[in-house]
Design brief:
single chain; alpha+beta; 5-stranded mixed β-sheet; 14% helix
């Protein structure tokens, strides 16, 4: 785990409650008040999704809510930004998947 526990400005963070959550079916733990992005980074997760068309891996980019690269599905709700969404207890988070290329499929069927 790579979480900062003694921050020079925020102080000691060891008193925060530990919260369980799942990412792609695997159990992880966050600290109370952490975003999904912060919790996943602290747990060593770097890949959040794949590009919908090309399938190339995507992760954290701006981490301030502008770029939309950190989109995940949270409790069945797609396109939630991991960098802006606070982890809640027993939250189910799924990475973004590659979408089928419908145009390519239609061309192949003709």
């Amino acid at each position: 785990m790579t979480r900062i526990m003694n921050h020079p400005i925020l102080g000691k963070l060891d008193n925060n409650k530990t919260i369980p959550f799942q990412f792609d079916g695997k159990l992880y733990y966050a600290r109370e008040g952490e975003t999904i992005a912060a919790a996943l980074l602290a747990n060593g997760v770097r890949r959040l999704r794949v590009h919908e068309e090309s399938g190339t891996p995507r992760g954290f980019y701006c981490n301030i809510g502008h770029c939309m690269e950190c989109r995940v599905t949270v409790n069945g709700q797609p396109n939630k930004r991991a960098c802006l969404t606070i982890v809640e207890e027993d939250m189910l988070i799924e990475s973004g998947k590659r979408l089928p290329n419908i145009v390519k499929r239609m061309v192949e069927e003709q």
